Amino acid sequence: MKTKLFILCFLMGFVLFSQELPPIVKYPSTVYGAGNQSWMISQDDQNRMYFANNDGLLEYNGTNWELYPTPNETIMRSVKVIDNKVYTGCYMNFGYWTRQTNGKLKYTSLSDTIRNKILDDEQFWNILKYDQWILFQSLNRIYIYDTKTKSFKIISPKNGVIKSFSTKNSIYYQTINEGLFEIEGGKGKLISDNPILKKYTIVNVFTIDDGLLIQTQLDGFYKLTGTALTPFATEADAQIKSGFVYSSQKLHDGSYALGTVSNGIFILSNTGKLNYHISQSKGLSNNTALSLFEDKDQNVWVGLDNGINCINLQTPVHSFTDDTGVLGTVYASISHNGMLYVGTNQGLFCKKYQSKDNFQFINGTKGQVWSLFAYHNTLFCGHDSGTFIVENTSANTIFRGSGTWKFEPSPNNKNILLQGNYYGISVLEKVNKQWKFRNKIEGFNYSSRYFEITPNLEVYVSHEYKGIFRFKLDNSFSKIKEFHTYSSPKKGKNASLTKFNNAIYYAYKGGIFKLNPKTKQFEKDKLLSSIFEKDEYTSGKLIVDQSNKIWLFSKNYIHYFSASKLSNQLKQNVIPIPSSLTNSMLGFENITQISKSTYLIGTTDGYYTLNIEDLSFKNYAVSISGIFINKQNQILKNVVLNDEGSFKSNENNITLNYTVPEYNKYINSEYQYLLEGFQNEWSEWSTKSSVNFKNLSPGKYTFKVRAKYANTLLQNTATYTFVVLKPWYLTNLACFIYLLLLIVIGYFINKAYRNFYQKQKEKLIEENNLLLEIKELENEQQLMKLRNEQLSQDVDNKNRELAVSTMSLNSKNELLAFIKEDLKKTSQDDNKNIKSVIRTINDNITEEDSWKVFKEAFDNADKDFLKRIKQLHPLLTPNDLRLCAYLRLNLSSKEIAPLFNISVRSVEIKRYRLRKKMDLQHEIGLVEYILAV
Q1: What's 679's DSSP letter?
Q2: Given its phi and psi angles, is residue 28 left (phi above 0), alpha (psi -120 to 50 degrees) or beta?
Q3: Rounded mean pLDDT of 662-684?
């Protein structure tokens, strides 16, 4: 019982993934930064999208989201782009938004002009256009605004308005319990009061050839032809009736999109056939579709109860997403005998090709599938458990020795297949129309995920961790010989090896190399290797399809090369689908040609199909969406887009946003920019949609941006010219003032220099004259010095003469004294002659006579000395002055004694008394003092 229940649940799981669906771009509220719910959607001529959101008017240009809050901070219920205005309605207010020169929207209220006519608690849920009139519909009334006369007319049904609708030639509305009305002449005209239209809420009204097609909320479609109302059956009636249809939209191709409250979205053909049912389990963010809108690229936008989704209905890419995890990661796929087989990490699954059938699990294949290979109408499955032969929905094991990576046919024997295993290479042989395992090739036991064989039985094996090997098989495929390990090219992560155009290629991070069959060496292929330049390498996986195209995967692109019809050169084709969007398993990328132009690419959560013949896209235009400037470390300031910019010198940080308003999930726009005046070359291509330039120097700049979409260069180049002004101190006026100041300063400097040099000249003359005067003075001083020296010499001579004279007098007196003493000693005392001689001697040795002679000579030699010393010391006696004169002649006490006719001791006493009278300090010498006077 448990087993049966498990199988039932398992099979029910397959119902969740049965249809290939268009890609869905999901925008959660965290991305667009506004409320969860969007009640109405519209688009302008520049492909910008607008959403009536809980938080206000939400704008999206393909790159950036911008939220404009409602004027009264209420929920915005409706939005409609008409001409160049965006009309919106909310709680007790409606009006329009216009774009300003800086690219931002500004609101103007229309309801304020009739504020007294607006009902209390009224909300405006829909906006319609008919000729020159714009209709704002609440649940009570319809306000008709004439854009020419700027006047209003109000339709007020007594039972209120459930909803209003517009067709090509008419405006309709439904009232409670009354039916469907058409507006004619500004009034409501009942066109059907059928009980069904009274009972069920109408979601939308569409025109058809024979009348109207009416979509109800709970009872499906009805045709209204004249007054007859008949059901319009569809394949999804039961689901639609139970799902509570809340929104609907007629699409460009005539099909209908229906949004339900609880069951996602239904896409029906104009005949009622179910094309798609897209719900949360199949990729939709939420099952409640509050609003639907088809844009100019035929994408269907869905305002959900929790976010916004964009469904790429008209796209060459369709995805198959396994949100349940039952299918798993797709590693291999193949279309064989009308069946589509998908090998995953969960096992092998199949369904009828191009059907909406559910995938069926093939019993016995549980586990990792590595490869699927069709050979002579036999399908081989390389599996972690070994090798299987698959027939319709069953699989039979033919080898369980080890896991099997891949298969290669023998070049010389169609009944032999080589298979790469976890532990070397083994041989499968067809015997009696049955494939069987024959033997393992001896001598090589390394894992052989990638290997190729040449006609002369040489085998090349790529091992991710050991590099490339080459060996030769014997004719019986039983053992190897001539084993060789390549040192170049090197081993590499996610490396691979394959055969293309009868040549063997090896790819790893260092490039793609081609085997030279003559030298048996690998040589770098410049064309193929170019795709890994600029850090584009993610995987070296090489895949060759049935049409002899070689496929490669890089960070931002899928590449395929095919042989040119006119030359031996390879023709390169690029599909701008990045690996981050495809969600592929790096190193295990897989792409399979399932029809002439359709390819299946496996991902970690399913797969997607790609029709390369439909890879043509609308020629979009790139535009600059926003320009911001700021001072250093200050907030950004928005500037005018259309006019040439002129910015202050300190506002030299500029940010430019640009966009291509396209909304494809897998195809990203790429941009390239050039700032003339700052750069000489275009930047590298990048998906980044903004650029910032900091600290631009003063000058004129022209910013140019161009774009590629789907690897096609768009026709237009968006430009913006701006000028960064010079700082005030570098303006022309400032430079002119600087020039004037320079001239004035130069004039005054010149004048100052002239004055300076004139003064210097005068000073030099004055200095020269002064030098001459100084020279003359020096000469005079020299002459005076000579004279003084002569005078000093004369004084010295006179002093010497005076001293000699004094000494002579002294000697004379001593001699006379001596003679006198001798005469006294004679005995002839009575001799008158002797007495006469003694008397004569006494007369000649009188001190007074000697002093007079000395004083006269001293005054001649040293004038005024005696007067000066007398003035300094008035108490000095003549004898004291006499002693001073002798001391000034530097005479000793011994020499002075005879002049006074006294003893030496008496002279010392005189000197002592003289010091006392002069009041000299002890440390001052008497002679030194007298010489200094």
Answers
A1: B
A2: beta
A3: 90
Query: How far is 230 from 236, CA to CA, in rounded Å?
Result: 17
Question: What is the arithmetic mean of pLDDT over 647-658?
Answer: 90
CB atoms within 10 A of CB 564: 10
Under DSSP, is residue 442 helix (H, G, I), strand (E, B) or coil?
strand
Report whether 21 contacts 276 (CB < 8 A): yes
Structure tokens at 245: 């249809």
Distance CA 645, CA 922 (A): 101
Tally of CB atoms within 10 A around 714:
17
Mean pLDDT of 856-864: 69
* Mean pLDDT lowest among 439-443, 455-459, 910-914: 910-914
Rounded distance between C-alpha atoms, residue 842 and residue 761, angstroms: 80
Phi first, then psi, for residue 761 (nearest 5°) are: -65, -50
Closest CA to 694 of 770, 634, 617, 607: 634
Residues 6+ apart with CB under 8 A from 100: 106
Query: What amino acid occupies position 590?
Result: N
**Cis, peptide link before residue 489, omega less than 30° from 0:** yes
Residues near 622 by beta carbon (within 8 Å), at least 6 away in sequence? 658, 659, 660, 669, 671, 705, 706, 707, 714, 716, 717, 718
Using DSSP's 3-state secondary structure scheme, residue 410 falls into coil
CB distance 562 to 597 below 8 Å: no
Q: In angstroms, what CA-CA distances link 412 with 428, 456, 503, 504, 572? A: 14, 9, 17, 18, 32
Q: What is the DSSP letter of 697?
A: P
> Both tokens of residue 729?
């101190």
Helical segments of 458-577, H only? 526-529
899-909 pLDDT, tens digit each: 777 888 888 88
Query: How many Å from the N-terminal Cα to the C-terminal Cα in the chain?
Result: 151
Short-list 184, 183, 185, CA closest to 172: 183
Tokens read off for 180: 């469907």
The string over 329-357, giving b where at least 16 C-beta atoms fall within 10 Å of a residue's C-beta and e elsewhere, is bbbbbbbbeebbbbbbbbbbbbbeeeeee
Dihedral, 88, 91, 94, 96 alpha carbons, nearest 10: -40
Query: Is the confidence at residue 329, as pLDDT, over 70?
Result: yes
Residue bearing the bigger pLDDT, 615 or 3? 615
Give the range among 127-131, 272-276, 807-811 with minimum mean pLDDT: 807-811
Tell me what the pLDDT averaged over the chain comes to: 88
Dihedral sign computed on CA atoms, order 662, 663, 665, 670: positive
* Out of 359-373, 500-514, 894-908, least confident range: 894-908
pLDDT for residue 1: 38
pLDDT digits (tens, 9 = 90+) for 592-607: 999 888 999 999 888 9
Instruction: Calculate the CA 533 to chain-centre distance.
Output: 22
Task: Provide the token pair at 763.
Answer: 């000073």
Model confidence, pTM: 0.73
* Structure token digits, residue 720: 């913006």
CA distance 171 to 73: 30
Non-local CB neighbours of 825 within 8 Å, separated by 6+ positions: none
Give the whole-angstrom CA distance, residue 97 versus residue 105. 6
> How many Cα atoms occupy the beta-carbon half-sphere of 336 within 13 Å?
23
Is residue 720's pLDDT more than 90? Answer: yes
Burial class (CB in 10 A: 0-12, 13-18, 19+), 571: middle
Q: What percent of the chain has pLDDT over 90?
A: 56
DSSP line for 323-360:
SSSSS--EEEEEEETTEEEEEETTEEEEEETTS-PPPE
CB count in 10 Å sphere of residue 119: 13
User: CA 446, 448, 452 angle in degrees (round to 5)?
Assistant: 130
Q: What is the DSSP letter of 193?
A: -
- Tell me if 457 sits within 8 A of 411, measured CB to CB: yes
In contact, 143 and 165? CB cutoff 8 Å: no
